[in-house]
Amino acid sequence: MDRLPKIGIPLIILFIALVILISKSAVTIGSGEAGVLYKTFGGGVVTDEPPLGEGFQLVWPWNKIFIYEVRQQEVYEKMTVLSSNGLEIKIDASAWFQPKYESLGKLHQEKSEEYVSRILLPAIRSSARSVVGRYTPEQLYSSKRDAIQEEIFEETSKIVDKQYIQLNEILVRDVALPPTIKEAIERKLRQEQESLEYEFRLEKAEKEAEKQRIEARGKADANRILSASLTDNVLKDKGIEATLKLSQSQNSKIIVVGSGKDGLPIILGNQ
Q1: Could you report the per-residue pLDDT of 136-163, keeping only the tens digit for each?
Q2: Residue 193 pLDDT more than 90?
Q3: What are the two backbone dihedrals, phi and then psi, of residue 231, each rounded to the nearest 5 degrees?
Q4: Are 253 and 269 spatial neighbours (Cβ–Cβ below 8 Å)?
Q5: 174 phi, psi to nearest 5 deg
Q6: Which ranges constitute the DSSP H helices of the chain?
Q7: Does residue 251 surpass a pLDDT of 80?
Q8: In terms of pLDDT, which residue wins out, 96 or 14?
Q9: What CATH number corresponds to the domain at position 125?
Q10: Domain co-membership, 52 together with 113
Q11: Whether pTM exceeds 0.70
Q12: Secondary structure class of 270 (helix, strand, coil)
């Protein structure tokens, strides 16, 4: 009976040690995350194996797991860059990105968990300065926003693709010009619009006048042809035809042949 406590105490100690060991070794990786394993006595960061996936993971207590979000993420950036003529342009942009899953170990080893601030944001700023520097404020304000968005995306992708970062999209949300430049551009655009409207009205009036001239010429030509074709004999024939048609009417009438002007019949009746 005296030996039972002596056996029970080591078992309790072993159980407590086992619980501590499991608590130190167990790691839960959440949804949309992955883990990079660091082996303290085994060469450091593991780069030749896939990252640890979601769920419950057991590692030796002297090793570590660094957890990364591998879903698409968004980062915002406000920049001041120069246009082609040296004016300051403020750009409000955001980037959709995610770390390359299979290269997560190398990303952690070479760039660390601060890869967004160390790699991605500097690459976006550099690309934005390069792209915006090719355009004038007028181009940026009016028609080139989609173009600079695509060009910033392409140039940033070339930089970060080699740094184990997958860039999915660059969105230029706003391009802000100096107030005086913006007012001057808007005034110029209004003047151009008014000029285009005036030219349109002139062109429309000219087309309408040309239409009326064509119609007038057509009527004049028709009248001239008709006048040339109406000889005395033709008029007499037309008159005779009309008289014959009237004579066939049921209304009572008197026809005097050869008593009208030019020898045409005269029709007298009570209707």
Answers
A1: 888 887 767 788 899 999 999 999 999 9
A2: no
A3: -80, 170
A4: yes
A5: -155, 145
A6: 3-25, 104-110, 115, 121-132, 137-142, 145-160, 179-229, 232-247
A7: no
A8: 96
A9: 3.30.479.30
A10: no
A11: no
A12: coil
Q: Same domain, yes or no, for 102 and 142?
A: yes
Domain limit, last residue, from 20, 47, 69: 69
* Among 108, 84, 81, 103, CA closest to 92: 81
Beta carbons of 67 and 133 less than 8 angstroms apart: no
Q: By C-alpha distance, which of 65, 63, 56 is closest to 31?
A: 56
* Count of domains observed in the chain: 4
Residue keyed to tokens 């967004």: 116
Residue 34, pLDDT > 90, answer yes
Residue 7 pLDDT: 62
The string of DSSP letters for 170-190 reads EEEEEEE--HHHHHHHHHHHH
Query: What is d(CA 24, CA 101) in angstroms, rounded to the nearest whole number?
Result: 26
Would you state the pLDDT for residue 1?
46
HSE at residue 199, side-chain half, CA atoms within 13 A, is 6
Specify whether 212 is located in the same domain as 265.
no
Task: Please enumerate in sequence order all residues whose Cβ is within 8 A of that of 109, keeping only pairs 6 or more positions apart, or say none.
Answer: 44, 45, 47
Decide if pLDDT at 264 tops 70: no
Other beta carbons within 10 Å of 267: 16
Range of the domain at 237: 232-269
pLDDT value, residue 75: 96
Residue 46 and residue 84 in one domain: no
Closest CA to 103 of 48, 27, 168: 48
Nearest Cα residue to 97 out of 82, 111, 84, 80: 111
CA distances from 172 to 26, 53, 93, 94, 133 (A): 43, 34, 4, 7, 15
Q: Are the CB atoms for 188 and 174 separated by under 8 Å?
A: no
What's the CA gap between 99 and 108, in Å, rounded?
A: 10
